[in-house]
Write a structure and sequence with these properties.
2 copies of one chain form a homodimer.
Chain A (H helix, E strand, L loop, with lengths): L7 E5 L4 E5 L5 E7 L5 H8 L4 H12 L4 E5 L7 H15 L4 E4 L3 H10 L5 E5 L3 H13 L3 E5 L10 H17 L7 E4 L11 H15 L3 E5 L10 H15 L3 E4 L3 H13 L7 H17 L4
Helix pairs in contact in A: 2-3, 3-4, 4-5, 6-7, 7-8, 8-9
Chain lengths: 296, 296
Amino acid sequence: MSSGFAAETVLRSRSKTVIIGRSRPFCVIGERINPTGRKKFAEELRAGELSAVAHDAVTQVEAGADVLDVNAGIPLVDEAALLAKMLQAVQAAVDVPICIDSSVIEALEAGLSAYEGRPLVNSVTAEDDRLSEILPLVARHGAAVIGLANDETGIPDTPAARLECARKIVSAAHDHGIARDDVVIDPLAMTVGADPSAVRTTLQTISLIRDELGVNMCLGASNVSFGLPQRHALNAAFLPMAMAAGLTSAIMSTAAPVVDAVRASDLLLGHDEWGANWIAAHRARQATLIQESPVP
Amino acid sequence: MSSGFAAETVLRSRSKTVIIGRSRPFCVIGERINPTGRKKFAEELRAGELSAVAHDAVTQVEAGADVLDVNAGIPLVDEAALLAKMLQAVQAAVDVPICIDSSVIEALEAGLSAYEGRPLVNSVTAEDDRLSEILPLVARHGAAVIGLANDETGIPDTPAARLECARKIVSAAHDHGIARDDVVIDPLAMTVGADPSAVRTTLQTISLIRDELGVNMCLGASNVSFGLPQRHALNAAFLPMAMAAGLTSAIMSTAAPVVDAVRASDLLLGHDEWGANWIAAHRARQATLIQESPVP
């Protein structure tokens, strides 16, 4: 059974447009501008020092990020003010769309006001109060939104229950005048180190949501490898599976093995016809190697 | 719809047993002992020089191969005699099961006679004359067999037509007293550089055969990247997709990025519970690095 619908989510920076969609190259959303688990970065942000933000923006875009996630969640900090400043720093450094990432309504509001373009709001859930608080904000700013497939009862164990959460979010968004194209569902990637069936559940959820709703999807890909050694290799194996099931974007590491796995999968799945992007990237890499090799 | 059946294919060398199955770690079959496209190796074999065979056997097993493919296909050479000699050389060098690879009946016969254990015969097709020639040989030697999902009309374009070929092979094998557990279907991996939909067709074929027949499957994984740059990266992205769809073994490169992708996928798909193998491999690698680092 298929809904026949295939969403296209349009995001914009000042001058650049990125479209997330099933027949397009995968949308890589750089995960790094986030103080969670980065003690030094969090301390710098707390002290108002934003140079690492600009640096992380530039290096992630150079490494292949199409969009950047920006999160300002530090305990006991005015998250709204900090997020607005971080967004200004990122926009001054690079020209790619941004995923504004906060669980605090006031911070999302400040971020949306500080942003020039059409961002992705990260995120709402299927909880009634979150839907009624966040969706009007998304609609007013003409943004797109990530909807996590969980509700008041927590994270559903089964793909079918996650689908129901997704359905509820799409429906509530519609009631607020937000098109299905602009709702990007997060099917939820949990760590396989805590639950050996976690990835299978996520993959089944992805193909179910693709077939039933046809919306775009985005997940935090690095979650799957949390706590395990050689995380890049695990993330690089997970993303091809998720892409083959129908995932269209991810908030992820831009380490070379992980981005390479995504671009290889684009080619394999027919979203980079005749390998034009793959071959161009290979030639660019070779040209760099030749330039960098010493003159004899 | 699911057949409910989940095959277990038992292969044996002199003293080692390898079982291919859906809930087990993926079976890596080293592809390298094959003169196709290896000019120097072919010349050595033609001259009766087998040291490279032993070397390739050892290095592939060290790199993580569970089984080795052995092919002696050189134009104008007595393939039966050469294959038997190569099998002796491989069995003297390593103790893993072998996949005896030839399209020549006499060579398969000589190989089966030279082999001590329970090999995988590579391969039969759904062509009537191949079925009636090869299956009695497989049955007589108590071997397992790879069945390619093509017939007299060539390689089917659709997953449904490949399934019908597979069904015909399983049925003919049954008529020859070969259990469904011992028929490993090759769903056929074609190069994506020649057909952008090739990988999607292969993935759909894999999940269809898994659901309808429940047999084990094996394919020549390196085919997908033929003619493209950075083949290891493409192969390393293809295998996780194919494993998530239900592939249980592959004749493949044992280059580190490709084997790592397979072992990472074992963990992600729940075939390496709690990551025991993954973590052990990581620790072994670290121990090697410490041993190799110079004493200060």
